[in-house]
Specification:
6 helices; about 30% strand; four-stranded antiparallel β-sheet; 9 strands
Length: about 200
């Protein structure tokens, strides 16, 4: 899998957030988008995910060296962000059943195993609305990391996690994230410790 940014720029009203980013991401490798708050790293991640359009430039996607139809992009990407909405009226089991009706879980995983790995077995039948912010973040990470997609996009993945949750994230990444194209938007090394390549947003102002 390959993603190519072609002179990608983004502005809000008259303010340019970043300008003329040309960069390629390829499987299997891990990349970190680094920068201070407001530098545009989360915005760039959403552009890469196809959730926002750049003001200037384009993003191309390739699978087995062939251009990927943008209409099928969502089947190849898993995404997690602190502001991401999940259906909180559903129980954890209902939500995972719903999510994995659209995307397959990784091989050897099923709903029961994912619930066990998340450490939320005791609340599997309770509405997600009753969960703490840290528990909700675990759910968001689980639906992304455990989906069988070649691309994994993570925006500040340890937000709201306690130290146990951070250690759990590290274990999941090391066991289930390798061999994929992973891009992490962060300014916390605990979140991108495994990323060999770094793209610094301040270089594109």
């Amino acid at each position: 899998m390959k993603i190519s940014l072609n002179t990608v720029s983004k502005r809000f009203q008259r303010n340019w957030i970043f300008k003329e980013i040309s960069y390629s991401f390829s499987t299997p490798d891990a990349y970190a988008l680094l920068g201070h708050n407001g530098s545009g790293k989360s915005t760039l991640l959403r552009i890469i995910a196809g959730m926002q359009a750049p003001s200037i430039g384009s993003v191309d996607y390739y699978l087995a060296n062939k251009a990927l139809d943008p209409a099928s992009l969502y089947t190849h990407i898993s995404f997690c962000a602190p502001g991401q909405e999940i259906v909180e009226e559903l129980t954890l089991r209902e939500f995972l059943d719903f999510h994995f009706s659209f995307k397959r879980p990784l091989p050897s995983l099923d709903i029961d195993k994912i619930i066990f790995l998340s450490g939320l077995k005791d609340v599997a039948e309770k509405p997600i609305a009753d969960f703490s912010s840290g528990m909700k973040q675990r759910v968001k990470l689980a639906q992304a990391i455990f989906s069988d997609t070649p691309i994994l996009l993570l925006d500040e993945p340890c937000t709201n996690l306690d130290q146990q949750g951070v250690e759990q994230y590290r274990e999941w990444i090391q066991e289930y994230g390798m061999g994929r194209l992973v891009i992490v938007a962060s300014n916390d090394v605990r979140e991108y410790f495994f990323c060999r390549e770094h793209l610094t947003m301040e270089d594109y102002k």
